[in-house]
Design goal:
This protein has helices at residues 2-28, 37-69, 84-90, 117-124, 156-165, 180-185, 187-204, 214-219, 226-244, 277-283, 309-320, 324-328, 357-367, 398-411, and strands at 107-111, 131-142, 145-149, 169-170, 173-176, 208-212, 257-263, 289-293, 333-338, 341-345, 352-355, 372-374, 379-386, 389-394, 414-418. The chain is an alpha/beta fold and 431 residues long.
Length: 431
């Protein structure tokens, strides 16, 4: 680069040397016509040059401004073949029309306290979401009692702004961390848990909750015992019925909603602890939506995609079932969509680090990689090296998200995003 700059300076000096004698002769020559040159230059600088500059500015920047307001589809950005330069240049240019909704089914978006960008994104793109779930609460055991922790996370001002910006329902996530056997077998704890959740919804004016418990119950062996599994399902049913008996403060014609988080099957066939079609059918009346966690497919010792498209398809079939009746209830499934990525170490011992959009852009800028598209998994990835150690990075792209939205739409299913603060701004144009 240094040599190129030197050549340009040299060439510029030659041109300057050739021009200067002409200017000098014009200024010192005896012809009377030379006397009019200063007036001509004065006219040029005062009138013609400003007008020309204005036209050039409008052509150059006016077109760019219009281009920035076009959608990612109109800008030709949703495609398999992309470059790091394109992502760096375009990722922050979201269409100004944030009220436009491209996806016809429910969109649940999670927001976490440890990633403040999510709060801003939720306010900016409120109309893109039907449900917003701030990750605020844990239901815990404290001796023989239960406590609901998390109100210190609540941002009342943020909720008020959401209410003004759009119609998204605010449904905070509640993770059940209480001892499963005590909660499910002791009736007073059962009733106390439901009462704590209902009271918090009423006090804070929520539109319902997102409940997460299945993975923890599986880890404790609850779901392997048919009797305990039945009790666990009955607990969820009763919670849903209680919430449905209360009208929403936002809309008196609607009841409080229950969204239930379910893990995606990890194998080709359902295991005992998996959430399957019978569970889905049983809870479908009490639960308004199921947040299916179709992400984290690959781990530290098996580097690979975050959520292969064929795995998402098989997860839907295993969870819902293949009957016509099951397909009619597919609208209650919110297919999980990760807005984070993974940076895997390709060496002995391995390792993985979850990355956000900001981390991803930094990697693109520092390593200038060649992005590759994997057709069968429908994800972009790239490889880079640090100190002779290779890494492979999988992170969502406009193309990968678009194909997953198409898959959801084909099933008539919704989407659940984990989590919106980790994504790139132009992702939201797809919704």
């Amino acid at each position: 680069m240094t040599k190129r700059r030197e050549r340009r300076v040299s060439a510029g000096s030659d041109r300057l040397n050739r021009i200067e004698p002409v200017v000098a002769s014009a200024q010192t020559g005896g012809s009377s016509s030379h006397l009019h040159i200063p007036r001509l230059f004065l006219f040029f600088f005062l009138f013609f040059l400003p007008f020309t500059s204005f036209i050039v500015y409008r052509i150059k920047y006016g077109q760019n401004t219009n281009k920035d307001t076009l959608s990612v589809y109109e800008r030709g950005l949703v495609k398999p073949k992309i470059s790091f330069q394109e992502i760096l240049a375009e990722n922050s240019k979201a269409s100004e029309n944030t009220s436009l909704q491209n996806f016809p089914y429910p969109v649940l978006a999670y927001v976490t306290p440890w990633n403040s960008k999510g709060y801003d994104v939720a306010k900016q793109f409120t109309s893109k979401f039907t449900h917003l779930s701030p990750v605020w609460y844990e239901l815990k055991s404290e001796g023989s009692k239960l406590i609901l922790e998390g109100r210190h996370n609540v941002d009342i001002g943020w909720i008020s702004e959401l209410r003004m910006n759009g119609n998204a329902l605010v449904v905070p996530r509640v993770v059940i961390e209480a001892f499963p056997v005590d909660l499910l077998k002791k009736k007073h704890q059962w009733d106390e848990a439901i009462d704590l959740i209902l009271r918090e919804c009423k006090d804070m004016g929520y539109d319902g909750i997102v409940l997460e418990s299945w993975s923890r119950w599986a880890a404790y062996g609850v779901l392997h015992d048919p009797d305990l599994r039945n009790v666990a399902l009955h607990f969820i049913e009763q919670l849903g019925q209680v919430l449905h008996s209360v009208s929403s403060k936002k809309n008196s014609d609607s009841h409080l909603q229950l969204i239930y988080v379910i893990p995606a099957p990890r194998s080709e066939n359902l295991q005992n602890h998996d959430f399957g079609p019978q569970d889905f059918q049983r809870l479908s009346n009490a639960v308004d939506g199921f947040s299916l966690m179709t992400y984290d497919f690959s781990g530290p010792y098996s580097p690979g995609p975050n959520a292969p498209l064929n795995w998402i398809e098989s997860s839907l079939r295993l969870t819902i079932g293949t009957t016509d009746g099951a397909r009619k209830l597919a609208h209650k499934i919110f297919i999980g969509l990760n807005f984070y990525g993974n940076d895997f170490v390709l060496s002995e011992g391995g390792g993985v680090e979850a990355i956000t959009g900001r981390d991803y852009l930094s990697l693109l800028e520092n390593h200038r990689p060649v992005l590759q598209w994997k057709e069968n998994i429908a994800e972009h990835y790239f490889i880079y090296s640090v100190n002779q150690i290779q890494h492979v990075v999988f992170y969502p792209s406009l193309m990968s998200i678009s194909l997953r939205l198409n898959k959801a739409q084909a099933w008539g299913a919704g989407i659940s995003i984990w989590e919106i603060g980790q994504g790139l701004d132009y992702f939201f144009e797809l919704f």
